[in-house]
Amino acid sequence: MKYVSAFCISALLLLVSCTGRDASGGGVSIAVFVPGNISGSPVYEMLVSGAETAVAEFNAAHQDDQPDGIPVKIDIIEAGTNQSEWGGRLTALTAEGKYDLIFSSNPSIPEIIAPLTSQFPEQRYIVLDALLAGNSSIATFRYNQREEAYLAGYMAALVTGSSMEYANPQKKIGFIAAQEYPVMNGILLPSFIEGAQAADPETEVDFRIVGNWYDASKAAELARAMYNAGADVILPISGGANQGVISAARELGFYISWFDDNGFSKAPGYVVSSSVIRQDKLAERVITDFLEDTIRFGTAETFGMAEGYVDFITDDPLYTATVPEDIREKMAAAAADIRLGKTLLPSPAL
Ligand code: RBF
User: Fold this and answer.
1) Is the CA virtual torsion 273, 275, 281, 287 positive or negative?
2) Would you say residue 5 has pLDDT above 50?
3) pLDDT per position as a tens digit, 296-316
C-alpha cells in the first residue's frame, strides 16, 4: 500500500512538472481561492480586486522583461459557501501544481492547507484575514479586528443613545453574524461590546446568528426580531445575507453599522458608519511583493490603524449628511486615540 501511494505521488509530481508552470515557459500563475461567494462579501470583493490590480500593474510594468514574454496569469476560483468542499478543492488545486501561488482570505484556511504543505513542499500559499506562523510554505496577514469592531461598537452606542430620527430611548444595539468562529467569538463580538460600553456603559448588545453566509431572508427575519426587541442600530457580518438586514432597515427604520468596506451608499440615511479593513490595498501589496520575491514565508503579520489597514470612514458625504456633528466629533476623537496609540487595543492571537 505504501509503495502504491508513493508511486502515485511520484507520478503525480511528474505529471505536475510536465503540465504545470514549466510547460508554460516560466510564466507565473496565481490562483485566487475565494472561500465563499464574491458578490456581497466585502472581504472577497477586495481580495479579488486588489490581486487583479497588482497583476495588471506588474504586467504593464514588465511587458518586455518577463520570462519568454509570458505575462503573469491570474485565475479566480469561487469555491462557494459549502465549507465541507473547501478542503477537497484546495487539495486538488495544490496537487494540480499549476499555480506558483494560491492566494486566499479567511481565518479557517491555514488549518486546511497546513497538512498539504509536507506532501507538496513546492506550493506557496498567502492567506489574508488569517493567522499562522511557522510554516515555511505559508505567509499570513491579518488585521487588528479588535480596533475595527471596537469602533463599530463605539459608534453604535453613540447613535442608540442619541436623538437621531430612528433612535429609540432604549440603549440596545444588535449584531447579526453569519456563523460563530474563533475570531467572531473571541475578537469581533467582544470588541464590539467593549467599544459600545466605552462610549456608554449602559449599552446592551443583542447577538444573533444566521447559520450561513447567504440567506438574506433569514437575516432580515433576525433583524426584524431585534428591532421589535428594541435594537435601533444593527451590525451585520454575514456576507450575502447582509442584504436582508439592509432591506429590513429601510422597511422598519433602524440604523446599520457597516463592516469591512465603505457601505454608506448601500442604504443612504440608514448606514451610520463604516469600519473598514483595507484588504484591497493589502492584497495588491502582497501580490506585488510575491511577484518581486520579497514575501517572507513562515511569518504572520497583523496590521491595524497605525499601519493604515484599519480605518473608520469620516470623509464620505453620506456620513456627514446622516450623522450629527457632536457624534462625528466624538468618533473622530475615539479613532484618533487608537491611531495615535492613546487607546491600546491589541488583537488576541486567534
Ligand atoms: N465573510 C464574508 O464576508 N463572506 C463570507 O462568505 C465569509 N465566509 C466565512 C467563512 C468562515 C469559515 C469564516 C471563519 C469566516 C468567513 N467570513 C466571511 C468572515 C470574514 O473572514 C471576516 O471575519 C469578516 O468579514 C469580518 O471582517
Assistant:
1) negative
2) no
3) 999 999 999 999 999 999 999
Question: Which domains are seen in the chain, by residue range?
Answer: 6-143+279-303 (3.40.50.2300), 145-277+314-339 (3.40.50.2300)
Give CA–CA dist 174/20, Å, rounded: 49
Query: Ligand 1 in contact with 212 (CB < 6 A)?
Result: no
Query: Dihedral sign, CA of 46, 52, 54, 60?
Result: negative
| Residue 41 alpha carbon to ligand 1 centre in Å | 8
pLDDT band at 69; cut points 50, 70, 90: confident
41 lines ligand 1 (CB under 6 A): yes
CA 189 – CA 182 distance, rounded (Å): 10
Cα(295)–Cα(306) distance, rounded to whole angstroms?
Answer: 21
Residue 244's pLDDT band, with cuts at 50, 70 and 90, is very high
Distance, CA of 155 to chain centre: 20
